[in-house]
Each structure stands twice: as C-alpha cells, then as structure tokens.
Design the sequence.
C-alpha cells in the first residue's frame, strides 16, 4: 500500500440521481402502454396505429437521451478521478523506466564480461587438441552466474572426445574415397567437425561423386580420337560393267587350243565382238 496516499482517508460517495422516482415512472409507463397490448389492426385504424408507433418510439428515444445526459453528469467525477490517478501513476513511470534501463544495461555489460572470460577459459582447454573453439557448442548455461569452471571443463572434455571420434571416422572415409579415386583431392581439413557426423558423411560422398565425374570427363578428353571406319555401300551386281580383255581369253591356254567358254545369253554379243576384234576364232554352240 502506498504510504503517501492512505486509502482509509479516501471516501468514495456512490452516484445518486435526485428528483426522479423510478418506481412511479415505471408504473405510469406500464399503465400507458397497457392499452396497446390488445389493439386489433384493421384497414381503417392502420394509419392511426402507425402514428402511435412513431409517437412511442419518440418517447423511448427521449427517455434514452435523458439517461445519457444523467450518466455523463454522474461519471464526470469518475473521469476526473481517473485522469488525476493516471497523472500520479505517470510520476512513478517516469522514475522507474530510467532506472530499469540502467539495470538492464548494467546486466548486459556484466553478461558480456562473463561471456568473454568463459570463452577465454574454454579456449585454453581447447588449445593443443587439434580443434578450435568454433568446433564446440557453447550453450548459454556456460555464461550463467552460477555455472562453475569445473562444469565447463567437464563439458569441453566430453565435446573434445566426441570430436576426436568424429574426426577419426571422417579421416577413414576420406582415405577410402581417395584410394578409389587414386588421388588425394579429398582433404579432412575441408570438413568442419562442428557439423553432425551424418551431414559430414553426406558431404564427403557428394564431393567424391563430383571428383569422380570430373576424372571421367578428363580421361575422355585425353583419349585418342578413333575415326569411324568408312564402309563402302555395296554395288548391285547388275550395275557392275567390266569390259573383257584379250588376256582374259588367252592365258594360260595355247592359241591353237580349243577352250570351251560358257557365256550368258545377254553377254554373248559382247564376247563375240571381243573375239572377232582380236582375230580369235570361235564357234557358238
């Protein structure tokens, strides 16, 4: 409770409306409206009933306007009270907000100092292990006020052990892939141990496939080009035309020796012309 404003000294007086007897007003209105409950609508009285409806709506609106006016007067003190209280509360806000900002800035600076000191301590634990601080996870718990150096030491040791096991698996896989490629293009240092082992294996396999494809492409480029053998198209027998010569009919026979020659009917005329041109006697049988 605020000691500057004692609640027991404050008295709130309930709002009160004078000059209006709600009970009597209710009875008068009910009595007036009672006559309309059993009214029967006909063609003759419809215009009059519409006028009655309009009149009743106007009276209802007038009554509502009176209510709004009275409520506004009744709540004026409430509205003024709220405005005054808001101003008083604002005085506290004006004092609290700057103080809160100073506290947060101080805590931020202390956190940064503590974080820097913890990381330097962890770096000292990592030095000489073959790994870097970037290979380790650095959870926020390390930087809490209550976290001890022994906890950080134990966490770093466990992570280094796990990293060594991971690095060993990566090294074996890289060596196996290089053996297949016959090169040393894959290097263990290409792969950060900060990544999960399954991601590292996937990346190594992907790099291996890329190197394999590149080697196959280079080998194909260096292979001697073999010109395709040109095979002549076969010539139909009927398209071959060879003029016979005297040598075809002399050797190895003697000139005076009769030699039977079998000639197709379509070639007979050509053979006869050849024999005649060379003074070779012949008999067609």
Sequence:
């Amino acid at each position: 409770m605020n000691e500057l404003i004692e609640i027991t000294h404050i008295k709130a007086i309930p709002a009160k409306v004078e000059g209006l007897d709600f009970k009597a007003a209710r009875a008068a209105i009910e009595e007036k409206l009672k006559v309309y409950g059993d009214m029967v609508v006909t063609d003759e009285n419809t215009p009059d009933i519409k006028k009655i409806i309009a009149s009743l709506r106007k009276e209802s609106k007038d009554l509502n306007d009176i209510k709004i006016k009275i409520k506004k007067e009744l709540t004026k003190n409430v509205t003024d009270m709220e405005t005054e209280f808001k101003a008083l509360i604002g005085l506290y806000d004006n004092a609290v907000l700057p103080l809160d900002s100073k506290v947060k800035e101080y805590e931020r600076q202390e956190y940064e100092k503590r974080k820097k000191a913890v990381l330097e301590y962890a770096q000292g634990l990592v030095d000489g292990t073959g790994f870097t601080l970037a290979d380790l996870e650095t959870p926020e718990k390390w930087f809490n006020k209550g976290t001890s150096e022994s906890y950080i030491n134990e966490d770093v040791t466990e992570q280094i052990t796990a990293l060594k096991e991971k690095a060993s698996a990566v090294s074996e896989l890289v060596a196996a892939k290089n053996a297949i490629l016959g090169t040393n293009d894959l290097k263990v240092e290409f792969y950060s141990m900060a990544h999960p082992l399954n991601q590292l294996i996937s990346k190594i396999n992907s790099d291996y496939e890329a190197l394999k494809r590149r080697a196959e492409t280079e080998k194909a480029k260096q292979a001697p080009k073999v010109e395709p053998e040109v095979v002549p198209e076969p010539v139909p027998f009927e398209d071959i035309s060879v003029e016979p010569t005297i040598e075809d009919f002399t050797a190895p026979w003697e000139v005076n020796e009769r030699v039977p020659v079998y000639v197709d009917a379509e070639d007979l005329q050509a053979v006869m012309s050849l024999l005649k041109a060379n003074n070779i006697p012949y008999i067609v049988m």
